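Researcher: Re-running this chain for the archive, since the previous output was lost when a drive failed. Same request as before.
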Amino acid sequence: MKKLAFALVLAFVTFPCLAQEKTAKKEIPDGEIFSSTQSVTINGKTISLATETGTVQLRDENDKPIALFGFTHYRKTNATNRPIVFAFNGGPLSASFWLHFGVLGPKRIEINDPAYTKPAPYKVVNNQYSILDKADLVMIDPVGVGFSKPIGDAKWEDFWGVDQDIRSIGLFIEQFIIKTGKMNAPKYLLGESYGTFRNAGLVKHLQDKGIAMNGVIMVSAVFDLQHLLFGPGDDTAYLIHFPTYAATAWYHNKVKNKGESLKAFLADVRKFTENEYAPALLKGDQLSHTERASIAQKLADYSGLSQDFYMKADLRVTNGEYFQELLKDKGLTVGRLDSRFTGVNEDLLAQSSLTDPQSDAISPPYISAFKDYLYNDLKVRKDLTYTTTASTRKGFKWDWKHNGNIAWNMQVAVTTLPDMTSAMKRNPDLKILILNGYYDLATVFYGVEHSINHMGLDANLKKNIIMKYYEAGHMMYTHIPSMQKFKKDVDEFIDQTSN
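Model: Regenerated structure tokens:
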């Protein structure tokens, strides 16, 4: 009887625990995939695409579920071992709909570049400039945007940071190529903006795991974030922004001598920046008044601002101040993402601009048209919320620490450039294609040139970095001639590196 009683007590204790354990396991959701067939016509040929969008269960290194990871996969039907491109936007943290619906996917939104696009109905067209004739495509939405979110014991902060982000996307890519049989196919990373900063770290991370990329495509790149910060006592950001100030003034006819072309004009600006502007800033308050006035006049001549403005600014003008000042006399401000765009200057007394005209002009059409495509063409359940940016999530905060950027227990840099340098030195066949917009004041082209010139690569290895330039901005594909060039440049890169 005592044994029977003990058994009954044990059962009452154990069975609820087992039931709770099974319930807990059931509470970890599986991913949900929505399938459809899409098509795209490129160069007169129609390509049929097996399409999946939704989420898969992402596992950690011990196969423990940690996230529902969102993506859209376009695969050419009846084709094997085609190259595959993993693409994402930046932010941090933005969903991938910009690249998806701007230049890479089978459909694209038409906008009124470089002006404002009228409200709906928007025009969505076949994307003849898509890369889908060259490769299969996976558009990635990192955890925090799209449909991606943590599950199980994982938390948002496990994914929100430089290294956390690289790790989770690396896990997704590895698990995806295993699942889809793409381990032996040519593989590419394509990122825009912060996505290029991510790429520089991710390519080494994957290579260290035995997954070498054929190529990495950087759209509007930044590898050293201090280049963008205008930090106290650091003159680098002022120097590397100046050529883009000059390009912007050239576009808006605010320079006296435009020269033969934008390219020739900027060659002169680079020489001035390196040989006169940089030494002047290096002198600090040891620069004489006469020298200061001379440099201020040359800055004014190239940038479209006044000598007096540069004198008051101690020769140092931030990008926000430049946006605000260049066309203030016309009551306008210029765009950060694309300085060809202009908008109403909301406060003529403000020192810095209050808004970005390019973002104001294109965000509504991109977001609205893409969500219409997502829920109707791609057949996603309409009760699922697609988050376009993580900044709308409560408590969003990015951890900027990165392995290799810490010294004396302090953050001494915010850069993934050493990662990319190491990856290239350890894989001399790795090619990097960098696409730069001359009118991009978010991630400036001269900053990319500065980074590349400080990688310490020998001449042969440096040839593996291919630089292309566009007379447009951060999202150069909003400009039709630049979109055509984008297609040509990326096609050639994939052709050259996939065989």
